[in-house]
Design brief:
By secondary structure, the chain is of the alpha/beta class. It has a single domain, classed as Rossmann fold, CATH 3.40.50.2300. It contains 5 helices and 5 strands. A 5-stranded parallel sheet has the order 2-1-3-4-5, sandwiched between helices. β3, α3 and β4 form a beta-alpha-beta unit. The protein starts with a strand and ends with a helix. The mean pLDDT is 92.
Length: 127
């Protein structure tokens, strides 16, 4: 089962998206900010991908991504950015995100992006 770490500070958005993804048979670990996500990171069984907002409290998205990558020792975990920031494209490039979707995003487009990332992961693991 594909494991997704979801970081979204808005409770309703986080819970709704987590439930939608679980209904699509993903294992979802949802957190309100990057600090809590890092505290709960299982280095021996890290998530297969990250879905994250760019604006959350305590630490910045960039601090989170850098710490995440350092802790798991992997620069290639796919990141999908979900944000209402006007400069989302710049941030996504800086974080080396696989893609970005501006809020409000189309859920079916998000499903397609996740499926594409999962397919890419399968190809990498087969190689």
């Amino acid at each position: 089962m594909i494991k997704i770490m979801l970081i979204e500070d808005d409770f309703d958005n986080r819970e709704l998206l987590a439930e939608c993804l679980r209904l699509e048979s993903y294992e979802v670990f949802a957190y309100e900010n990057g600090k809590v996500a890092l505290e709960n990171l299982n280095k021996n069984n890290p998530p297969d991908m990250l879905l994250m907002d760019l604006s959350f409290p305590i630490i910045t998205a960039e601090e989170f991504v850098n710490s995440f990558r350092a802790q798991i020792g992997n620069e290639t975990t796919p990141i999908i950015i979900l944000s209402g920031k006007p400069d989302i494209k710049t941030f996504a490039a800086k974080l080396k995100a696989r893609c970005f979707l501006p809020k409000p995003y189309d859920l079916y487009r998000l499903y397609n992006e996740i499926a594409s990332a999962v397919s890419h992961l399968a190809e990498e693991n087969a190689a």
